[in-house]
Design brief:
mainly beta, Neuraminidase, 5-stranded mixed beta sheet, 4-stranded antiparallel beta sheet, 1 helix, 50% strand
């Protein structure tokens, strides 16, 4: 597989946790929001991967309780996407002629958003929307790689594209085909990870090995960063009430939280080593992944207060 520097940064980011450099980039964000964190009171429902697979990442959750993410095929070593219904039924999906496939979000209408990697060299990445088994490929104009992370009820999608070998920018794509670029000023990479029905986008940006969370709407950025997170903050979901979920990063682990009314609350599963947040729906149900050990993982949905 051919990887440029920007692609490698993206793959590390997409497959957290990863060991990060000890280098800390200290930034003063005048528009940033940082507050003390509490531990949330959460009620968890957990699940395991279907037979023959290992959980890779548990991402978003739709309003009907469908959870999406990625599985590792234990036989082939390839990543396949999955949806899991509220009744616990898994459906696996691999895009045609793909080496790996990921799904990150699903809207209220059942349209899933994700991306796949070509099986043929040089392994370019293509975004897609999947509705009732029909695949629509999304390629940002003139970009080698496109990652699609989320889609809202009106069909506006959010994602990122490789603007050059060392620069990744975010974007939204309306249902009528209009692209709007999202690029944090002076950042080398901007990931537009989630979008709600109000057009608010959350994600992360970076120029070094530290990620910083942001909220974007109508061209305006607001930085939202977990207090004293050594290696940064990644925002992964936002619902229509403006409740945000994300993860703060240590050397090789990611710790989930939700953020509401200026308050961070940690998502903690008793007996787990750490818990990662993937998404949140409009009922406030959070999806994510629990790491008991490096080889023992659970998916979850949770209601937290």
């Amino acid at each position: 597989m051919h990887e440029s520097g920007s692609e490698k940064h993206n793959e590390d980011f997409m497959n957290l946790p990863r060991s990060l450099s000890a280098l800390v980039v200290a930034l003063t964000l005048s528009s940033g929001l940082t507050y003390a964190a509490q531990t949330a009171a959460c009620t968890f429902d957990t699940f395991t991967a279907p037979s023959g697979y290992t959980l890779s990442q548990v991402q978003g959750i739709s309003d009907d309780g469908t959870v999406v993410g990625q599985l590792l095929d234990d036989k082939t070593g390839e990543y396949v996407a999955f949806t899991r219904s509220s009744a616990g039924v898994f459906t696996e999906y691999a895009a045609p002629k793909s080496a790996n496939t990921w799904i990150y979000g699903q809207n209220a209408g059942g349209s899933s958003s994700g991306y796949y990697q070509d099986s043929a060299y040089p392994g370019y990445i293509h975004g897609f929307l999947l509705q009732s088994g029909e695949l629509t490929v999304v390629n940002y104009p003139k970009a080698n790689n496109t990652w699609l992370y989320d889609v809202n009820k009106s069909g506006t999608a959010a994602g990122s594209f490789s603007a050059s070998a060392s620069v990744i920018k975010g974007f939204t794509l309306s249902s009528t085909g209009k692209y709007t670029t999202i690029a944090y000023p002076s950042a080398a990479v901007t990931y537009a990870m989630a979008i709600n029905d109000n057009g608010q986008v959350v994600g992360a940006y970076a120029s070094g090995w530290v990620d910083y969370g942001f909220l974007w709407q109508n061209g305006k950025f607001t930085s939202i960063n977990y207090p004293k997170a050594k290696y940064g903050t990644i925002l992964s979901g936002i619902n229509n009430a403006g409740v945000i979920v994300g993860n703060h990063l240590s050397t090789d682990k990611s710790f989930g939280f939700f953020y509401q009314n200026g308050v961070f609350k940690n998502i903690v599963y008793s007996g787990g080593n750490y818990t990662m947040a993937g998404g949140i729906n409009n009922s406030g149900v959070i999806s994510g992944q629990i790491y008991i050990t490096a080889t023992d993982q659970l998916g979850f949905t949770a209601v937290c207060k």
